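Quick one, tokens below. Sequence please?
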């Protein structure tokens, strides 16, 4: 990720004139939750009573960083799928 951030900061500054640092980006995330929720609710269609469950496994982090990963602490758990 560091190389990506360096590349964006050095070579794509013109495309992202208001680019903030990674730490500032993390600080700004909570301020986006309400606007994101409002947008998602505006895109929400009429309920039909039919629900779909997506069971595709999501790779949250590399196994080397699994002990440091805190994003879904208490919710996520390790496991295997038929695809892995």
């Amino acid at each position: 990720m560091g190389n990506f951030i360096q590349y964006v900061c050095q070579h794509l500054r013109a495309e992202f004139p208001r680019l903030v640092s990674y730490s500032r980006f993390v600080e700004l995330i909570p301020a986006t939750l309400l606007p994101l929720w409002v947008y998602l609710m505006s895109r929400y269609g009429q309920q039909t009573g039919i629900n779909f469950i997506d069971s595709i496994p999501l790779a949250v982090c590399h196994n080397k960083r699994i002990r440091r990963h805190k994003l879904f602490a208490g919710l996520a758990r390790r496991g295997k799928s038929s695809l892995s």
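Residues 66 and 78 are 9 Å apart (CA to CA). The first helix runs from residue 2 to 11.
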